[in-house]
Write a structure and sequence with these properties.
Oligomer: single chain
Largest sheet: 10 strands, parallel
Radius of gyration: 26 Å
CATH superfamily of the largest domain: Ribonuclease Inhibitor
Number of domains: 2
Strand content: 5-15%
Order of helices and strands: HHHHEHEHEHEHEHEHEHEHHEHEH
Strand order of the largest sheet: 1-2-3-4-5-6-7-8-9-10
Helix content: 40-55%
Length: 372
């Protein structure tokens, strides 16, 4: 196991002589003794941490096992760690590292094959209280125990990815939001049991700083949950509702009225969405033109309003409503290479074009008539 790796002094001398060449930015090479260092044990903490910052995470972990001085320096100095490269025994690795790397702020534990178990997450919550960014995606083995542990031990979480964690319940997720109120980015894609109206009501009540939420394919989400989000999370910028088949126009209308900073909205396969929702989004820009005028005076007009919208398979929509929306938000593009308005599967919307397409058509006509 990595934590038990033993490295010889000669190998370390050679390894770190090469690493110091990189750290010094000199491809010609810098000998260790040329900077007053005769062996690896003499490396100052500041230089050691600089070198470690250039290493991959696996090598950094190996370096932390060399001696107590290196262990203390690296464990206290390292704030970001990714263990996604670990194909086997990730759970045991986390159990051994969590008590040492107590200053971690970012921890990526994304897995291709489920390895993590609740005891590893409980260890993280026990020792890593500064954690702000945690990725547990595809951790199929985790249960509610993990969310309860994170709620108790990691109140500073700002970004949490638990996509694909199908065993979590909405009760556990609601409990988490009572303690992790600083959340700004939350990925619940595929969390069918956890992402319910009950949980979304808790998020809307507790996570007022939320800016990005992925609810893709959470088919237990309905209007009550989305409206609770809209009323509680006014700073919401990105919301993915793809596959949330139960939502209706009421959800989009609430978002249009309450979330004035919304930039990206995914409605793929939300077939209950009608023209009413599109017109409400378009009207929201007109209604809030006062604040947008202030932004335009500061040169940020193009940053306002929707920049990305996916209405694929929303077959109830008509060209007039979608065109009105496209005309209202110039950042929505249908032109080749810039598809930020995605309408695949909506054959009745082929006549909808963005401002670029209209301008190109006018330019072509002008050139054609001038030439003749």
């Amino acid at each position: 196991m990595i934590g038990e790796t033993k490295v010889g002094n000669e190998d370390l001398n050679l390894c770190f002589e090469k690493l110091m060449m990189v750290a010094a930015g000199n491809s010609e090479g810098v000998k260790m003794n040329s900077v007053g260092i005769t062996e690896w044990k003499d490396i100052p903490v500041e230089l050691l941490l600089r070198i470690v910052s250039l290493l991959d995470d696996q090598t950094a972990i190996v370096a932390s096992s060399v001696c107590s001085g290196w262990r203390d320096a690296i464990c206290l100095g390292l704030t970001q760690l990714c263990l996604s490269w670990c194909r086997k025994n990730m759970n045991n690795l986390v159990l051994s590292l969590a008590p040492k790397f107590t200053r971690l702020q970012t921890l990526i534990l994304r897995q291709e094959n489920p390895q993590l178990e609740d005891n590893a997450v409980e260890s993280i919550s026990k020792f890593c209280h500064d954690l702000q960014d945690l990725d547990l995606s595809k951790s199929f083995k985790l249960s509610d125990r993990s969310l309860y542990a994170l709620a108790r031990g990691c109140p500073n979480l700002k970004k949490l990815n638990i996509s694909g964690c199908t065993s979590f319940s909405d009760e556990a997720l609601a409990y988490l939001t009572n303690f992790c109120r600083k959340l700004k980015i939350l990925n619940l894609c595929g969390c069918v049991k956890a992402a319910t109206d009950h949980a979304l009501q808790a998020i809307g009540r507790n996570c007022n700083m939320l800016q990005s939420l992925n609810l893709g394919w959470c088919d237990n989400v309905g209007d009550l949950g989305v409206m609770s989000l809209a009323y509680g999370c006014h700073d919401l910028r990105c919301l993915d509702l793809c596959g949330c088949v139960r939502i209706t126009d009421d959800s989009v209308i609430a978002l249009a009225n309450e979330c004035l900073h919304l930039r990206s909205l995914g409605l793929y396969y939300c077939r209950n969405i009608t023209d009413r929702a599109m017109y409400s989004l378009a009207h929201s820009r007109v209604k809030n033109k006062g604040s947008m005028w202030e932004s335009s005076m500061k040169g940020r007009y193009e940053d306002d309003g929707l920049k990305s919208l996916n209405i694929s398979q929303c077959t109830a929509l008509t060209p007039s409503a979608v065109q009105a929306l496209c005309d209202t938000f110039p950042a929505l593009h249908t032109c080749s290479g810039r598809h930020s308005l995605v309408m695949s599967g909506c054959l009745n919307l082929t006549s909808v074009h963005c401002a670029c397409a209209v301008q190109a058509h006018r330019t072509f006509n002008t050139i054609f008539h001038t030439a003749h």
